[in-house]
Design brief:
Length: 433
């Protein structure tokens, strides 16, 4: 038994990838012909190569010499591997002739009958490990050079065994992938239910309801008012060079990516000093303010909780707390289909996706009495909490399936079990995760 640093103990023979596959790096992009014999051809770049297959486009083209067109031709069965970006991502080509590939992509072709499909699974095992960070020097922009790929130690069982392993993994991973797809469908259904719960919170259907063109169906007794009549002010977070205030620790400095639909995500949170927070009083936030993403993908809203009372923010709208509308109700309305519809209307014809303070103040919203708002917010919170419990379970199951898929691939390519005798059994059980 041999040990490969990135893979662990291997029962199969081991060798450099170049002993089983011919590795070729693509050509530098050529925007124009260099001589009269050059031809314009479609080509693949790294974004074309996805795990589920190679994306074809006749519109992505560059110039190449007849020799390059011959030597860099992609044919069915070739394994294309990303040299940069998502390093190691790969796909087996199954499409028409006539394409070449640029220098962000490697092509692997079998030597003496080796299986590119087996190599594809080996690369999936590599991609799921931390070894690519070592191999490609994570401190800089990651690149999997041709030499590194060709020198990569991999298990190289006999060709017939390679094909058996690939065939076995095709069947087993397809089963796992179907289960993962079901989990994704369930998460999408929960997202639809969440949207429906938000819509129900800020609307009312019945004999006493009316249809408003911007806010939907509401009670006749609910005033529909522009936000300028409901909230005292709208401020904007730090817009000019917010990075100049970054510190390793200190006061939370909330950015648009922290503002989710209904909550503030601490992941990736930036910080500023207390002195900077004192200096930037207009962008300081307080419990009960509602933050709205103003640029990029504008419109997500979340209430500032006690945890972030006195924090600061960058390039988001700060809807200051008023007396007529509960912040949780206001956030729910902005995140609802009716609120998002007004966000989209404000973007119509705009060169950039940005919401201004003036646009936010012009949004109209239903304003039932505070007791009705509280009742609806409480009901919404109960519905969302129940949905979140279900979502957490589904996400956990999806995570386990991904881990088991990775463990199964690693176990198969390293020879932890005989795929010939394992076919048809529940081989996931007993595989080390």
């Amino acid at each position: 038994m041999t040990t490969i640093p990135w893979l662990g103990q291997v029962r199969h023979p081991v060798g450099a990838a170049r002993h089983a596959f011919k590795i070729t790096l693509g050509k530098m992009f050529q925007a124009s012909p260099s001589n009269s014999t050059d031809v314009e051809v479609p080509y693949f770049k790294s974004i074309s190569v996805q795990w589920h297959g190679v994306q074809l486009s006749q519109e992505i083209r560059m110039w190449a010499t007849p020799a390059e067109r011959r030597d860099l031709a992609v044919r069915t069965g070739d394994l294309l591997i990303c040299e940069g970006g998502d390093v190691g991502r790969s796909a087996i080509y199954d499409g028409p002739d006539g394409f070449i590939f640029e220098k962000s992509v490697h092509r692997a072709r079998p030597i003496d009958g080796s299986s590119t499909r087996y190599f594809w699974y080996v690369l999936q095992a590599l991609h799921g490990s931390d070894w690519l960070d070592v191999l490609c020097n994570k401190a800089t922009i990651r690149h999997l050079t041709g030499e590194k790929l060709a020198s990569l130690e991999i298990p190289i069982p006999p060709q017939e065994e390679q094909r058996r392993i690939a065939h076995f993994l095709d069947a087993e991973t397809s089963h796992i992938d179907r289960l993962r797809a079901k989990r994704r469908e369930q998460m999408e259904l929960l997202d639809e239910r969440r949207t429906a719960a938000l819509a129900e919170c800020v609307s009312l259907s019945g004999p006493d309801s009316v249809r408003h063109p911007l806010v939907g169906t509401v009670s006749r007794s609910w005033p529909v008012l522009p936000l300028r009549r409901v909230i005292p002010a709208v401020n904007v977070g730090v817009v000019i060079n917010p990075s100049t205030y970054f510190e390793e620790d200190g006061v939370p400095f909330i950015h648009g990516f922290n503002v989710r639909s209904g909550w503030i995500d601490p992941h990736g949170m930036k910080f500023m000093s207390s002195d900077s927070n004192e200096e930037l009083g207009r962008s300081r936030v307080y419990s009960g303010d509602v933050l709205v993403v103003r640029a990029g993908s504008p419109g997500r809203a979340a209430v500032v909780t006690e945890e972030y009372d006195g924090a600061n923010c960058a390039s988001v709208l700060i809807l200051r707390r008023g007396q007529a509308m509960l912040p949780q109700f206001l956030s729910a309305f902005i995140n609802s289909p009716a609120g998002q519809g007004q966000v989209q209307l404000s973007q119509y014809g705009a060169a950039q996706e940005v919401i201004s303070a003036a646009q936010a103040l012009s949004f109209v919203a239903p304003v039932p009495n505070l007791a009705e708002q509280q009742y609806r917010v409480d009901r919404l919170n109960a519905a969302l909490e129940a949905q979140n419990r279900v979502l957490s379970k589904i996400q956990h199951q999806a995570s386990l399936l991904s881990e088991r898929r990775q463990a199964l691939i690693t176990a198969a390519v390293t020879g932890q079990f005989d795929v010939f005798t394992a076919s048809g059994r529940n081989v996931i059980e007993g595989v080390t995760v």
